[in-house]
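Students often ask why inverse folding is considered easier than folding. One informal answer: many sequences map to the same fold, so there is more than one right answer. In these notes we will look at a single instance of the problem. The structure comes first.
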């Protein structure tokens, strides 16, 4: 394990990992806030942005330079989304700043409180679809792929 700070990078085999800013906040958790939140740009031929847990922030514009893929969180784990997170609408808005070729919604539908799928079924079924619909409206030039659990996506040229 190698710890990176914002702006630092690490070469791993044939790829480069660059730590980029994220804005998450601590939410008042005991022991939280001792380290900053980060996203990562992975350069291995294609340029891939993994946003991590973050909210929308202006510095995303600087991250979005020739991105092939943006992996964007579109929800959290419960029925309410606190500060420091993207929802389907704000994640779609980030596409105008990031300008990726392809976007995949992540961080939704697989980790929920016990009983949540029965009480709030949209938690496990709709966040990705809502993101795709909003992305088509605000950033139609970006291809959105909503993947099922375990499904993979190959990035070919162009």
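Output (designed amino acids):
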């Amino acid at each position: 394990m190698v710890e990176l700070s914002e702006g630092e990078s690490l070469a791993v085999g044939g790829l480069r990992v660059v730590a980029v800013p994220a804005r998450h906040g601590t939410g008042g958790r005991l022991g939280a806030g001792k380290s900053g939140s980060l996203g990562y740009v992975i350069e291995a031929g294609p340029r891939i942005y993994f946003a991590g847990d973050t909210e929308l922030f202006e510095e995303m514009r600087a991250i979005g330079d020739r991105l092939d893929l943006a992996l964007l969180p579109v929800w959290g784990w419960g029925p309410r989304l606190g500060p420091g997170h993207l929802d389907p609408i704000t994640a779609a808005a980030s596409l105008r700043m990031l300008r990726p070729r392809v976007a995949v919604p992540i961080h939704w539908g697989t980790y929920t409180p016990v009983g949540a799928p029965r009480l709030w079924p949209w938690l496990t079924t709709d966040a990705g679809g809502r993101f795709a619909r909003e992305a088509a409206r605000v950033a139609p030039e970006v291809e959105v792929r909503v993947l099922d659990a375990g499904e993979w996506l190959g990035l070919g040229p162009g």
